[in-house]
Each structure stands twice: as structure tokens, then as C-alpha cells.
Amino acid sequence: MDRLCIVTTGGTIDKIYFDDKSDYQIGEPQIGRILNELGVAFSFSVIPILRKDSLHISDADRELLRATIAAQEAERVLVTHGTDTMVATAKVLATIPGKTIVLTGALNPARFRGSDAEFNIGCAVGAVQCLPAGVYIAMNGRIWDPARVRKNVAANRFEAAAD
């Protein structure tokens, strides 16, 4: 892998909570800071295209993401995305041929102690380097086919979708 291309869309991984307002905003992408702090042995570039909760990502946003990734020279792309509509976005990205695309996110903000963000990013980095061309989701320590996974909101995890 010459250089990992990372495209960010916001989501819980980048959320900043304000206790006094009981509200949040999507902050700066956290993945670059996380990878730098971990001292990874590869170069990467971060393309921040959206700062949205995934529930607010529109079809036009998904098309922007698809076009942005398709325009990159990189054959391996990691996407940070909110978990609620990650599967829907992955299905749109499946129309891009010849690239390995791995989507990941977090169920708790990266800024929070005990967040799953670093673990999911590490899993996604490993997956994007090893998998053949296609689109995948890296969450909860597993690599998922977007056509066969769903987010179980009640259990707050990804699991196999019922056929």
C-alpha cells in the first residue's frame, strides 16, 4: 500500500458533546489524529467531504462520496461514516469497480474513553490492505459484506442480516 486514502463523512466517530447543552456537533475528523498517535508505518491522506450524522446523509451526499472515491487514484480507500446508514452508503459505493473500500465508524465518539473508534479503525486498516476489490464494513471486530449485515440498534452492534 503506497498511501492509504481516507474519506470522512462525520458520524459518531467525530462527534463532540456539549454537556451544558446536552447536544453535539460533528467535529474535525479524528482518524488522522488517531493514526498519528498510534505511529502507523504507512502514509495516508484524509479527504473530509461531509460532517454529518449518517441519519442526515442524503442520496446527493452518497453520490458526492461515490464520485469523490471514484476520482481518486488510490485503489484502497477507507471511509469513516456514521453507523445508522453505513450499510445504505456501502451499497451505493459497490458501483465503483476496481477498488477495495472499507467503511468503519464508532458506536461511541473517538474522544470518549472506552470508544470503539480505535479498534474499528485498526480493523478497517488491516482489512483495506488485505481484501480484494469490493466494498466492506469493518465494525465490532468483524468484516462484513454490506448485503449481509445490519445494525442492531437495540443491541448497539452490527450483526448478520436475516435472509
Structural account:
Keywords: Hydrolase. Substrate binds at residues 54, 83-84. The protein has 163 residues and is of the alpha/beta class. The chain has a single domain, classed as Rossmann fold (3-Layer(aba) Sandwich). The protein contains 4 helices and 10 strands, in the order βββαβαβαβαββββ. The protein has helices at 31-38, 59-71, 86-93, 117-130; strands spanning 3-10, 15-18, 23-26, 43-52, 76-80, 100-104, 134-139, 142-144, 149-152, 157-160. The strands form 3 sheets. It has a 6-stranded mixed β-sheet with strand order 4-1-5-6-7-8, sandwiched between helices. A two-stranded antiparallel ribbon has the order 2-3. A hairpin with a 4-residue loop joins strand 2 (15-18) and strand 3 (23-26). The protein is globular, with a radius of gyration of 15 Å. The model has no long low-confidence stretch (mean pLDDT 94).
